[in-house]
Amino acid sequence: MYEVRFHGRGGQGAVMAAQTLAEAAVNEGNYAVAFPFFGAERRGAPVLAFTRIDSKKIFSKTQVYNPDCVVVLDDSLLDTIDVVSGLKPEGIAVINSKEKPEDIDLGKTINTATVDAVSIALEILKAPITNTAILGAFAKATGIIKIESLEESIKRKFGEKLGEKTGEKNALAARTAYEKTVMGKSRGIKKLEARKQWLPTYQEMPVGGSLIESKTDAGLIGPGSFIENKVSGWATYRPLRDREKCVMCLLCWFYCPEGTIHRISNKGDLMTNYDYCKGCGVCANECPVDAIKMVRARA
Amino acid sequence: MKKVITGDHAVAIGAKLCRVEVVPAYPITPQTLIIEHIADFINDGELDAKFLTMESEHSVMSAAAAASAAGARVFTATSSQGLAFMHEMLYATAPFRLPVVMPDASRTLAGPPGIWCEYNDSMGARDSGWLQLYVEDNQEALDMVIQSFRIAEDKRVLLPVMPCLDGFVLTHTVEPVDVPEQEKVDSFLPSYKPDIILDPARPAMIGAFMPAEYIMELRRQTAGAVESSKEVIQEINGKFAKEFGRDYGGLIDTYRMDDADIALITMGTVTSTSREVVDELRQKGEKAGLIKLRFFRPFPSEELRKAVAQVSALGVFDRSVSYHGGGQVYNEVRSALFGMTIPVINHLAGLGGRDVTKEQIMKMFELTRKAAKGEKVNQINWHGTRGETV
Ligand code: SF4
Ligand code: SF4
User: Fold this and answer.
1) What pLDDT is recorded for position B317?
2) Which residue does chain B place closest to A197, by CA atoms?
3) Beta strand A46-54 with A31-38: parallel, antiparallel or unpaired?
4) What does the pLDDT look like over B17-54, one tens digit per residue?
5) What element of type H or E holds B13?
6) Strand, helix or coil for residue A211
7) Which of A54, A108, A162, B85 would be a feasible disulfide site paired with A188, CB 3.0-4.6 Å?
8) Which ligand ends up closest to the CA of A255?
9) How close B204 comes to chain A (CA, Å)?
């Protein structure tokens, strides 16, 4: 059995990638399953997806803890999550990154493949949706699936949902990534400490789970603890407001799902706190006078 | 002071004596009198509480949970369809440990539509985390509202409590009730002081979304609270008996069980009638006894095992059916007695509000006696049902 764990963020299509891989594997005559694991469903939040491939029916319904391959759709995750945790020694990491494998520090030296899926996606799809490109890199790096089978599944699956043209473009993104994938070994310098999480026993759990703000070994809990949850790392884009154009209708302030836009004076002047802006673009979409432009957040 | 009042009136007086602070309500037969009496108390200046007329029972329980989370002592009452309608919100109050007290005027849950006594309304809520008890007369109805708040607000428990009183058989029946003095209730029931409440001055999260990493611990905690309520119920029963001179036995009560050879387990008003039946049987020389199941949640498994240790057969009365066969009490009892070899048979009667007669109760004992002798009897017996051969 071959097991893959996808790391992405809500909205990046990790689940769709896992499903497409499963479908391609089935079309090659195998048995495959794919399933997601969501945290609090929220655009930009880390998500996991899993694919299992075998020559016979798969019964296991648990999550994948010792994958043969991890696929990382967003390299900003490398800073906060040990993406290679549990990876088999002979396993491989496939990472969406501009860097060469040798320049990526995964905390251990392992087989690594990289591809600049964001640039490929922006060029071909005109959107930073990297799930199809990364599948191309997966095919190249692992040899578990033929790129032709993937192209076929992508065309069908994405074509069905988004139209034939989009399906073909996505297949092209996969093929392009397949050709541009760089293979090598990661660096193993940084010490990866498991991120501390507040995990009380049932006796330690506050009565009824009710919380006031308090400090634990794993940081703040309770109301106000979200101050520690900076989401700026998620953003591919960032909103820029043109003060000249803005008519102070406050729609962006009202609609921002992160409550990131603040009124800083009685005249209604606005400020975006980029620490908590996840770059979703809702504000730009709602602005009636197109005063907000979304620009690339990271080079 | 003795008053001749209905069960609903007794319950309302109980709430008043507890100085409840918020009462969100929606009327439903046969609970309506409770709510009307409370409204009168507030109107007449006898009770200083916020009365909220809600647009549905779902909203009633939402408001009750919210008010409780804000630190108020919350009371409401419901029945049947109303209880069903608030079902979703019942599941919020218990794990979030909000000690709301809500009597249920037991009534058949449609279909078919009906307004008379049956326990299929409250039985559907048995896994919501609410503590559930069933009373026998109007005095117990009043007294148990007072005890319920004390149990619910105990720091070892902090769970909502649902005292159930038989629709019409108690709710609309007048009998003498000794109304306790306010000062006595005040000293028995201190005011409610939760550790964490919803207060803008000290922000708190109550009832927040929880990922899989936390819910099992919360479930385990709630299960533990239900378990520890047993001790608290027993303790508070003792304290109440000392203060007010009425001892209800706690989780269960027994009647003439000392040398009993056969026994019947009952809940609610059928217990009352059965006391007289037991006396009649005793006069005939039959060693019959009675176990009154007072609390259905928590379920007093240990207490029952002890109570039936000497009997040679046991009958279990149910006023509702779990459609796979017997009633809910029967199945809980059998589970509690697992490993014991006493024959246990089920007696279903009084569903939909059908009167449970002495003859039927006599028959229950008769069949239980047969089982004790090792004669062949049905496991599940429907009493007073046309077409049945019991
Ligand atoms: S992009 Fe706009 S709407 Fe989205 S989080 Fe940032 S400020 Fe809020
Ligand atoms: S929605 Fe546009 S116009 Fe309205 S306040 Fe925001 S930036 Fe200004």
Assistant:
1) 98
2) B213
3) antiparallel
4) 999 999 999 999 999 999 999 999 999 999 999 999 99
5) helix B7-17
6) strand
7) A108
8) 1
9) 4
Give chain B's mean pLDDT.
Answer: 97
pLDDT in tens, B210-268: 988 999 999 999 999 999 999 999 999 999 999 999 999 999 999 999 999 999 999 99
Residues with CB under 6 A from ligand 2: A 241, 246-252, 286-287, 289, 291-292
Q: Which residue has the tokens 């036995």?
A: B249
Report the length, in residues, of chain A.
299
pLDDT digits over B96-142, tens only? 999 999 999 999 999 899 999 999 999 999 999 999 999 999 999 99
User: Residues 6 or more apart from B266 whose CB is under 8 A from it?
Assistant: B274, B290, B291, B292, B293, B317
| 8 Å CB contact between B298 and B319 | no
Q: Taking CB atoms and an 8 Å limit, are B206 and A224 in contact across chains?
A: no
Residue with the two structure tokens 């988004």: A162
B95·A208 Cβ contact <8 A: yes
The long-range contacts involving B192-199, CB below 8 angstroms and separated by at least 24 positions, are B192/B71, B192/B72, B192/B73, B192/B99, B192/B149, B192/B153, B193/B71, B194/B71, B195/A207, B196/A206, B196/A207, B196/A210, B196/A211, B196/A212, B197/B69, B197/B70, B197/B71, B198/B66, B198/B69, B198/B70, B198/B71, B199/B70, B199/B71
The span from the CA of B348 to the CA of B330, in Å, is 9
Cα(B267) to centroid(ligand 2), Å? 65
Instruction: Indicate the burial class of B270 (C-beta count within 10 angstroms; 0-12, 13-18, 19 or more).
Output: buried
Return the residue matching tokens 């062949």.
B376
Q: Contact, B319 vs B268, CB < 8 A? A: yes
User: Chain A closest CA to B390's CA: distance in Å?
Assistant: 48
Let me know: does B291 contact B307? Beta carbons within 8 Å.
Answer: yes
Per-residue pLDDT of chain A (299 residues), as tens digits, is: 999 999 998 878 899 999 999 999 999 999 999 999 876 556 667 889 999 999 999 999 999 999 999 999 988 888 878 899 999 999 999 999 999 999 999 999 999 999 999 999 999 999 888 999 999 999 999 999 999 999 999 999 999 989 999 999 999 999 999 999 999 999 988 887 766 789 999 999 999 999 999 999 888 999 888 787 777 767 778 999 998 999 989 999 999 998 899 988 777 688 999 989 988 899 999 999 999 999 987 64
**Chain-chain contact of B97 with A224 (C-beta, under 8 angstroms):** no
Summarised one tens digit per residue, pLDDT across range B55-91 is 999 999 999 999 999 999 999 999 999 999 999 999 9
| CB-CB contact of B196 with B158 (8 Å) | no
Q: Any idea what DSSP says for residue B74?
A: B
Hey, what are B96's tokens? 């979030």
Chain B residues near residue A222 by CB distance under 8 angstroms: 203-205
B259 contact A CB<8A: no
Say how far apart CA A132 and CA B242 lie, in whole Å: 75
Which residue CA neighbors atom 8 of ligand 1 most closely?
Answer: A256
Whole-angstrom CA distances from B72 to B92, B128, B226 are 17, 22, 22
The residue nearest atom 4 of ligand 1, judged by CA position, is A280
Cα–Cα distance for residue pair B321/B117, rounded to 1 Å: 13
List, in sequence order, every beta strand (DSSP E) within chain A.
2-9, 31-38, 46-54, 69-72, 92-96, 111-115, 182-185, 211-212, 214-216, 219-221, 237-241, 261-263, 270-272, 292-296
Q: What's the one-letter identity of residue A127?
A: A
d(CA B83, CA B190) in angstroms, rounded, equals: 29
Count of CB atoms situated within 10 Å of the CB of A163: 11
